[in-house]
Amino acid sequence: TDLLRISTQSKVSLADWEKVYAASSQLISSARCELDALDQDSQVSKLNDSKVGMPVSISPLALDYLDTNLSHYLSSEGKFNPFKVRHAPKLIEVEDQAVTKLVEFVLGNTLLTSYIIDTLDELLRGTGISSYLISTPQIYVGRGDVDWQVEFEHPLGSENVEAAIRNSSIQMATRDNSHKMITHRQKSIVRNPFANEDVAPSVLGLILQHNDSQTQARVITELAMGKSHTLEVKPILQEIALSAWVLNPSGEFVQLLPAAEAG
């Protein structure tokens, strides 16, 4: 089993991400080819078969949604990015209701933590659970039999989740307020600008305001050095961002340089 451990003490190299992405792209493409050859009822049945790497029930409408909304995280080789979460009304039905093991999905592009946290916030809205409680400095990315799996662990323990939520101060920012963040107890969570209309743009969105890779690298470097542009970035997000490829407004993947190289 391939296992990458991302922590505040170690950075995942671009070579590691490329290996993960190549495998996920291959899985995405092969699964989509299988599905496209089937009628609607057979598609739903096939998606329940773990052999295609998605042991969850996804409707064809959900596939279209994933195609449209997650394309920012895929290259031209990938068509969609199936994922498994605790609650996904209208999209995915899952059996696992555990609080500490919420996400299992096929990886697309990096800035991984930002995307997962935003997905959790959206899909957990109204459930009384906050993704902040599961976003810790340790994320484990491993290769299962057919899936890439991402597992979050948090120190609070599920018995303390409700109390922690009651004691949290949550501020919601809209897409129009481009530099605001959702905060819990003064700790900011990086947001994904592409997920929904009522979530705040993320560090990725801030970077993509600039069209040239040199300026993007400078912004990411400043973020990592604590010049927050009104955003506070957790150490784990800094590390991922500094070794990330992002999609620029021209539709090209741009490598963000490590701080030492960015000048």
TrEMBL record:
Gene3D superfamilies: ApbE-like domains. InterPro entries: ApbE-like_sf (IPR003374). This is Uncharacterized protein.
